[in-house]
Amino acid sequence: MQSRRRVIPLALTAVLTVAVSLAWAAPMASGAPTDPIQTVPRLTATTPEETASITAPAGTASLATTMTMTNVSSETDIVFILDNTGSMSYNLAHIGQAISDLVANLDAAGGSDLAFGIYFFGDVNDHYWIQADRSVTDTSAGGLWILPLQPLSATLTPADITTLLTPVSGLIYPYTGGGDDPEDAILAGDLVAANAGWRTGSQRELVLATDADSHVRTCPTACVNGNDPTLADFQANVAANNVNVTIVNAAGYPAPTWPAASGDVSLHDLITTFGEDPTAAPATSQDYLDFLSNEIILQNAAVAPIDIVPTLSVTYDDGTASTDVTASVTPAVATQVTPGGASVAFTVNATAADAAALVRPSETTTVYVEYTVQTTGAIVARQTITFAPLAAPPPSPGPQVGPTPANPPRATGGGSLAASAGPTGGIIVWVLVLAAVGAGVAAGWRRFSHRRAD
Rounded distance, CA 81 to CA 5, Å? Predict the structure, then answer.
């Protein structure tokens, strides 16, 4: 008797399994690509994401995007860290004059969203004193934000930066004294690299100008976020915040190779630590401009070209290849975009088949092009063209009076639920119906079995 009692429940399970499997296997419409478009430093696309549609059989559509690689990112942050001790008075005047010209060069190189900061330092054993027309600040850290990092705007123009760096009584600012020869370049650089407030996604440049060796401080005399401000900590904060460092030798002559005093870091070693040439020694405003333009804009020719790979697909709703639209992308192979070089235009063209040649006239065909960086796979642009032959409803034949072959009587109650739900919805409805029927049959079988047992 037990085996007979299992027959209907097992059969019902098999029926439901088959029905659910059919519902699960029904094709589902594919969604639009959702992977985010990424920002790549120095690379811009005129239209990173665009769409179009073909409105009729034999129709066409095309989309184009132009990619350009600039020498600097459109969003660039630059902080100038300047030694303001007495020996720097002559050089600071030249540096200040060069910065306004540098701003113009940066804009021409593609830096359309520039932010600047200016930080002065001396020696932690000295104190700042600023004239009455400047804010008065005293700091035991031996440094001072003259201009916290902020974007150029209507309230901060290149002329305003020039004014900030205009000499006062023969110096840009009254000097900090300095005292002994080493200053606190490492402490100042470490503080700025860690805490400048760099903008997300920006190209980050730290320019440190000094003519002296550097002290190496320890807590509690001076700390950076709780750490000793050593050269290694400076390097760690630079790496953590993805900052490019340029050390400017403002001594007026090649940095000497003799060792620094015990515990200090020589100017020569500070320069070479960040990959600079210790023999470079700008002396005039034009020298500083040329040096900074080469370091920040041209990156010493270290900015590599980017290869862009276009990937084209033409598919129906279910993801299979479509023959109802033919499409091509030009250029069709990996193409190099070079810094400061000619722009590259990518174009996709699509043509729909004639109405008589359509294989699946009831389905949408999607032409999709994805542009990626060859080395990283980052998506930098995408283009989508769709063709839906039956998207537009046919014209209305006009009002009908009485039942006709084209206008049969409607069933009351809203018609068939399964028919109105579409193919996938219909299967799901039948699954529910079978489940209800099966449950009723199983309940009846149990009652019948109990009666026989009694």
Answer: 87
